[in-house]
TrEMBL record:
The keyword Oxidoreductase applies. SMART domains: AlaDh_PNT_C, AlaDh_PNT_N. It holds the Pfam family AlaDh_PNT_C. Keywords: NAD, Nucleotide-binding, Oxidoreductase. GO terms for molecular function: alanine dehydrogenase activity; nucleotide binding. This is Alanine dehydrogenase. Substrate binds at residues 15, 73.
Amino acid sequence: MKIGLPKEIKVKENRVALTPGGVGTLVRRGHSVTVERGAGLGSGIQDSEYVAAGAVLGPAADAWAAEMVVKVKEPVATEYGYLRDDLLLFTYLHLAADRPLTDALLSAGTTGVAYETVQLEDGSLPLLTPMSEVAGRLSVQAGAYHLQKPVGGRGVLLGGVPGVQAGHVVIVGGGVVGTNAAKMAMGLGAKVTVLDVSHRRLTYLDDVFFGKLTTMMSSEANIRALLPEADLLVGAVLIPGAKAPHLVTRDMLPLMQEGSVIVDVAVDQGGCVETIHPTTHDDPTYLVDGVIHYGVANMPGAVPRTSTFALTNQTLPYVLLLADHGVNALHRSRALMLGLNTYQGQLTYQGVADAFELPSVGADAALA
């Protein structure tokens, strides 16, 4: 199969979807790989490393002309022209928060397999997990920075000092993002409260953190009670492939103190904070009612070296399966079948269909 690796062009997105090691594995299996010049530079990977692995270098158009394109982030508007009906696209898509991209994929007839909806039998999301780990840890770093007075924050040090109360980090959602945010916040010495709808998950968190954080059931009443105390609120809610529910609503915002910070990691799925909207690494924050909102939708792009290797460790087995078998790989892997979002002009993921009230067909039926 002919595989293309274009350079990411989302603002300050420095990750790349394949390492030279991954390219070498594909080439040894008889596939050809075209890498856009400079695709790996943001992650510290030189073009010469790809050439040594067997890749051919070319412009963006050559990479996109391949049978399968492997990316990190969803195509942006200037890339829609590359979409076509004989293209297999494997990347993060997050369609439930992006109607224009959804329409573009359907109009082009592109086969879109989304990293974030590839799902194992136990319900885990193997291609979302590594970036959720990174984003969860970064959320606290970003929040701690923006709490500093010179950048508009309350002037709170999350860890406090002897004789002074530590900052309070409230995390809405106890999954992978929430767990990693809790690790970082506790490592800084902050007071941490995690809310989740699953009692089993809260029990797990209480056990693994030895009762050193507070766990609470996620409810409107509990969220309202915690907002006045929160120096940093981390949104860590996930419904696979679907739009995130607004658990912190617009009318709740005045409960928070001026200069407190919200980091909504769910922003690429619409956000669990009603007042959040996507921002970029160039201009990451804005104010609503005196509360700092951080809505960068590609947070792991800030640490591309770590993120690229963490992501490709997980994606490569699926890339190999798709390269070896094309769309038929979905019949060989139930996890990949669940990753199918669009196929021949049909929407094949119910969560996306629900977000936009569009018709859909099951992935199995579409491929039958």
